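Exercise 7.
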Amino acid sequence: MSAFSEAALEKKLSELSNSQQSVQTLSLWLIHHRKHSRPIVTVWERELRKGDETDESCKKHLGRVLSIWEERSVYENDVLEQLKQALYGDKKPRKRTYEQIKVDENENCSSLGSPSEPPQTLDLVRALQDLENAASGDAAVHQRIASLPVEVQEVSLLDKITDKESGERLSKMVEDACMLLADYNGRLAAEIDDRKQLTRMLADFLRCQKEALAEKEHKLEVRNLFLI
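Solution. The predicted structure, written as tokens, is:
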């Protein structure tokens, strides 16, 4: 893992893309260097304010990242508040009720069948191949998670720390476990998005095929009428 510096973070932000690998790499790097939370906030805010406005879709995804960090206590609350302030300004996102979340989910589901340009067969094949290596099927990572040392799972074992060396050793084990789980959770979130996208692609592909079949059947019926 490369050393932290403001210049390094600026470079990583400038090179950030929408790819799963790019997002995961930056997220893990920030988690690894969370002790540098203050300069991270400074750079985050400065980079966001460089543009006249931030795309709403981008804000939504960045907000999701902040929510995950908040749930997992990756950064202190005051740090997260500063990041939210940089992202949203004075317009802080309101917490949604359970009913609002369900409405959004239903709207997303109904939008799956909305007409759009059908994907090419090659695009479908690639999307299916990508899912073959998805996080949910990664047996090696499953085994690594199942084999995490008991020291990082049982809080009661903290009482067994007797000196600085054992404390540092436990801290290293916990950090490694956090990195592993953060990476896996990020991959799972990306897999969910990929599966939703594939569902939309398949729906559009099937719609296009049905329309083409109906058109050919109609032409065949017309042709048969002339042959009678």
